[in-house]
C-alpha cells in the first residue's frame, strides 16, 4: 500500500496530521479545500499555502499516487480510458464516459481481481492488491479536473456519476471503498461533493458485505453482478456463488433495498449460448420479482469479448427476446449502452496489454 495521503484521512485525522507537522489546525481544511474543492494535488500549486510550507506538506500528505501511463479514446472522443501506474508499479484503469445528460467515471477498487469470473479480463489476471482509499479517490479527482479543464472532447464539464465497476470486487476491499465513497460524496473540505445517489457500488454477490453496506446509512445504488439466475451455471460463471447462492445474494439485496430505500440494479452480461436461453430469462424475472418486487432493474450488458476468449455476445434478436421475457415477469429491463469496444474498455484489458 502507498504511504498515507490526505485523501486517506477523515476530518479529525487530517487535523491531527497537520498539527503533527507543527501547523495550526486551520491549515487542515485549507489544504483539503485545495484538493477536494480546487482539485489540486500538488502543494506547490496551493497558492494560499505559504511557500516555505509546501514541501513539508507534500512530503507528509501528498506522496505520489497515480501516474498516467496513457489514454485511449473512442466514440468520437466521448469515451476515454486511462491506464494508471501506482507508486509501486501497480497498473489500474479508469474509464470516463461523456453522455448528453451526464459524465460518468468507472473506477477501480483493486488492482486485478480475485473473483476469477472466466469471462472477465480482470478476473483472468488474478488479484494484485487492494487499492488505498486515496488511490480510489484520486481517480475521481483527476477525472473531475480533466473535465473542468477541457482536456476531454466536448467542452468543459462536470463529473456527475461514479460507478465502482472497474477492476476489482469493491466489497472485497470493503473499508477502503466505503471510506472512498464518503470522500467522494461529502462536501468540500471533506470530499468532492458528488451526490450519493449518483454513485453505484457493484459486487458479484458477497452477501455478508452487502448486508454490512446496507447498515452504513448510505444512499448509493447497489449493483449485483448476477449473470444467471440458477446456481448450477453461476457456480461456474461467478465462482463465489459456491459460497453464497443466488437466493442468499437476493436475500441480501432485498435487505439493502429495505434499509436504503434504493432500487437495486442487477447486472447481467448476456453470453451467446451460455446464459441467454429463454427459460433463464423467465427464471431471472420471476426470482427477482419475488425477491424485490418493483425495487429492481436489470441492466443487460452485451458481452465485450476479451482477446482469445471463447465467449461472445448474444445476437440482437436473442437479446430482444430476453428483455421481453424479463419484463413479462414485471421486472424493468434495459440494455446497457455499450462504450469503448474498440479501445479494450472491458475492465482489465488495457492493463493486461501493459
UniProtKB/TrEMBL annotation:
One of its GO terms (biological process) is tRNA methylation. It is found in: Cytoplasm. [4Fe-4S] cluster binds at residues 113, 117, 120. It comes from the Bacteria. Keywords: 4Fe-4S, Cytoplasm, Disulfide bond, Iron, Iron-sulfur, Metal-binding, Methyltransferase, rRNA processing, S-adenosyl-L-methionine, Transferase, tRNA processing. Reaction proceeds by a ping-pong mechanism involving intermediate methylation of a conserved cysteine residue. This is Probable dual-specificity RNA methyltransferase RlmN. It comes from Nocardia macrotermitis. The gene is rlmN.
